[in-house]
Write a structure and sequence with these properties.
- The structure is a single chain.
- With about 450 residues, the protein is an alpha/beta fold.
- The protein is about 30% helix and about 20% strand.
- The chain has 14 helices and 18 strands.
- The longest helix is centred in the N-terminal third of the chain and has 14 residues.
- The chain is elongated.
- It binds S-adenosyl-L-homocysteine.
- S-adenosyl-L-homocysteine binds next to strand 14 and strand 16.
């Protein structure tokens, strides 16, 4: 969590920088093992002693341009340094800046708007223009967005700048230390958007299983986490959240991925079909995601409409569509419009979220709409809890469908005008053998 800001005279050797760190850390009762990395001015990016030290210790070296460092309020600015390099502070400003920026954002655009305790005090004495510029809202904030990291006082300078020399070495080193809110992982996070299929473990793709297995964190709705529990391994962070907290789930996932973890977000069926996939991408978009960091990989799953089809025959052999009857996120007028269009256009239709305890009228409207364009004997499949222990499949007709149980764990398949049943199987002809004679 400690970012060490370093300024030094040109040619200061690695041994002198090491000596300076040891001195400053010991004097301030800090552990060298807590060093996240070194921060400095970009002019120092080729400073041999600094580079050798970072390589030896495997520390990141973050270099900031003077234009960014000069905007950071520090306790000990120097006019001499300002005249030489264009910023009155290198060590203190670089330490504060590095500590205020989460690991993943550090590579991208920076924004020096997160300031420490003592600067809050300083800022109140500063000119109004300076106050405004310092209070800018972070635009390129990485780890989970600004909601995770309050704008005030999250970064504090633990040690103000110290100048260290040693009689045996040439040069001089300035050291300042700031503490970050978040531990530096040094990793690029990953978001694995995983579809776990309808329920049973043998309906998950091997790629999806491997993704779940290698994740540091698995996030999903409690029921789905329970369904794949045997794939989890010790040491993984499991965050099972109640249904209806989809947004929180997605934000939590991006926060952890921005921090450098590999996060699997699981949805039943396919994660991009009424699943978490799109929501996670939307949340990333609100964070000005660059499309690469965190890395996103998507693992498709068998969606409920495919599972349902597999249990009753080949109802989706011709053009089909899916319509969710849930009006929680979609206005009912829009759903109605789509039902009418699908019925008119003779699509075979898969209805998701057909009916809940309190929402019972939508499925009646759907039936009435389809009856206006299809015969009452059109095949309909009601597929409940597919590939789960309580699976139940009813093959019925459009006219009779509402006389059977339908709930939120049911997917409803309504055939098109050519669909037929034979010996208990639901078939929608593609046309190879000709279509059913239409009345
Ligand atoms: N991402 C999921 C859909 C989630 S929306 C997928 O691709 O399948 C939730 C709706 O999906 C449920 O209301 C139900 O209509 C359907 N569904 C999901 N899993 C199901 C299962 N195992 N059996 C029957 N229907 C299911």
């Amino acid at each position: 969590v400690l970012w060490v800001g370093i300024g030094c005279e040109r040619g200061s050797p690695q041994a002198l920088i090491e000596y300076a760190l040891e001195q400053v850390f010991r004097k301030n009762h800090l552990a060298l093992g807590a060093i996240a990395g070194i921060a400095t001015l970009d002019l120092k990016a080729d400073e041999v002693g600094l580079i050798e030290l970072c390589q030896a210790q495997n520390w990141p070296l973050q270099c900031f341009p003077a234009e960014q460092l000069k905007d950071i309020a520090v306790p000990n600015p120097s006019e001499v340094v300002a005249a030489a390099v264009g910023t009155g502070s290198v060590a203190e400003a670089a330490a504060i800046l590095a500590a205020s920026i989460p690991a993943r954002a550090a590579k991208g655009p920076l924004n020096p708007s997160i300031l420490g305790d003592f600067e809050t005090a300083q800022r109140s004495q500063a000119s109004p223009e300076l106050q405004n510029s310092e209070l800018r809202t972070p635009q390129h904030w990485g780890a989970g967005g600004p909601q995770d990291i309050p704008q005030e006082s999250t970064t504090s300078l633990r040690v103000q700048k110290q100048i260290i020399r040693h009689p045996d070495y040439p040069g001089a080193v300035t050291v300042a230390i700031a503490q970050a809110e978040t531990e530096y992982t040094g990793r690029t996070g990953e978001l694995l958007l995983v579809g776990t299929g309808p329920g049973s473990l043998d309906q998950i793709t091997p790629a999806a299983k491997a993704a779940i297995n290698r994740a540091d964190v698995v996030i999903g709705y409690t029921l789905y986490v329970d369904l794949i529990r045997s794939l989890l391994r010790p040491g993984q962070i499991i965050e099972a959240l109640p249904i209806t907290q989809e947004r929180q789930r997605a934000e939590r996932a991006t926060t952890l991925a921005n921090w450098g973890l590999t996060v699997a977000v699981i949805s039943s069926g396919d994660c991009g079909i009424y699943g978490m996939g799109g929501l996670v991408l939307e949340v990333l978009k609100t964070q000005n995601w660059d499309g690469k960091t965190p890395a996103v990989q998507i693992f498709p799953g068998i969606s409920a409409l495919q599972s349902a089809a597999s249990r009753v025959g080949a109802p989706l052999m011709h053009d089909f569509c899916a319509i969710s009857l849930s009006d929680l996120l979609t206005p009912w007028e829009v759903i109605q419009k789509r039902l009418i269009a699908a019925a008119q256009a003779d699509f075979t239709v898969a209805l998701y979220n057909p009916k809940s305890k309190t929402r019972t009228e939508q499925i009646q409207f759907a039936q009435q709409t389809f009856l206006q364009h299809r015969q009452p004997d059109t095949p309909v499949a009601l597929a409940h809890s597919l590939y789960r222990p309580d699976e139940q499949i009813v093959l019925t007709t459009l006219g009779d469908m509402l006389n059977h149980p339908i709930d939120m764990l049911t997917t409803v398949l309504i055939g098109n005008q050519s669909s037929l049943t034979h010996a208990g199987w639901f078939i929608t002809p593609r046309g190879y053998l000709g279509f059913k004679q239409l009345e």
